[in-house]
Amino acid sequence: MRRLLCSLALAGAAKAASAQGGLMAGLSRCDAGFFQLLAEQTQALRPQGEVRPRAAAATFIVPSLTQEGQRRLMFGQPLQLHGLTVVGYLDELTPIPGGVDVSWGFLVRGKPADIAAALKGIIWDGRRLRHEAEGDYFVRSEIWRHEQPAAGWAKEATVNGPPKRATVERVFMIEAYEDEPGLARAACSLQGDVTREMLLQLRPDFPIDAK
Question: pLDDT tens, 79-109?
């Protein structure tokens, strides 16, 4: 009986580890799928931090979406994903010219180049992940134009500066984390004229009335 219980425990742990292994790929799509994965793993992720269900999704809870220094959760126990040490989660809401910047993702120990190399083949549509030497970061982007909704998310490179009127830039980026040396952000961002309907579709976990 003891051997059976041990076998079941090991199988459960292996299953949880396998499921967690999909988190980075899910995150890189920058859509609702990542939050649906979190909803399936609320118990397994307890050592990292609180994962709160919301509708058919869930998310890690940060102290504040808008207050500097409060927009991250440092994990009680790091996650090991694809040979990387993931030490926290960030969730941010920032006003920008022409709209808002909604960002979410993981805090990872290491340099952007090393993290990008470790995630080669893991990141969704990773062939479009490009290195920007000025600033030393890696980025993949799409653009939504409200005047052309039938076109969907256009796979285009974004340019520096605020998004153009009536557009939203969706970005997956690996960059140094300015608040703490030695860490990097592997994170998504919706920037520009982000609508309520878009948030409901891409961030089903998001408190629409967040302050």
Answer: 999 999 999 999 999 999 999 999 999 999 9
